[in-house]
Specification:
about 350 residues; 5 strands; Alpha-Beta Plaits; single chain
Length: about 350
Amino acid sequence: MLDWLSPARRAQRLDERLAARRRLFDSIGELLFASRLAPSPRNYGLVHSYLSGEDVATSVAVAEALRATGTLSEAAAARIADGQETTELGPDTLAHIAETLEARIAECLGAAGQSRRTAEQFGSALQGEAARLAEDPAATIARIAALTQDAVTATRLAEAQLERTRREADALRRDLRQARRAAERDHLTGLPNRRALETALRALDAGDSPATVALCDIDDFKQVNDRFGHAAGDRVLRFVAAFLERQLGGDVLVARHGGEEFACLFRGTAPAAAVARLDVARERLAGRSLVNQETGLAFDRVTFSAGVAALGADGAAAALAEADLALYAAKHAGKNRVCAG
């Protein structure tokens, strides 16, 4: 993915990646130490999922535990780990719902086919009895009455089966829609997640222009966690997420890209216009005074840096890499600024 970059920029990009990994590693260790958790693979995986936002179900469960007690106990970690397989809305869950829905639809079609066959058999039997009506009217009428009753009973059974299957199929469709929405939603912030962003980028027509991507990263977010705790850090993440979404407007897709980083997709917007809009949002956020609701203490000024790049012929991956480099430049230029790639 980095082959198109110059050697100097490639080295810069790799240095930035290593620095980001080191920050994540340090944050994982700090939360494990603060919670007095053993550095086991299970605990490391839980905290990694929570801080990176890669596993929706685990992120939500850890966040709820931290909000409730301010720490993550061994018992809570074990409970979350045990529930991972049953709570995650992954591809297997979606596939199971889709397969069950398909089976219910097949049942509907089968019931409809059986009802049609019953009607055809009833019609043939009536024709046969009508031909014998002159021979023995009373007996023929009795047989026709019995045939009619059997047909009515079969029709009612088919209707009941169709109605029952229809209700089950409707419920499964709702489950499928909810599962798909949940799979593309970051439960901590309520924003679309990385999967949703990738879906939106794939849906863009290559001929559409202009389009711009931006990566926004909260400045010195580690200090918020260190000074005020991870529960307070979660509240800051939710606030900034809602702030960006509100300030940038409904025509911009704002997604959580991982950790304290957000990605923005500006459809029909050139990079210069995207920079201007992000600058307005940046200045307004920097002018806000935020207070920790639990303690009443004021946070230090919360700001973000952003990198912006045009979506071009090289595709979304190249544009995101360019935006990442611009974000890196904004951080090294002093933070609280927007740079274009």
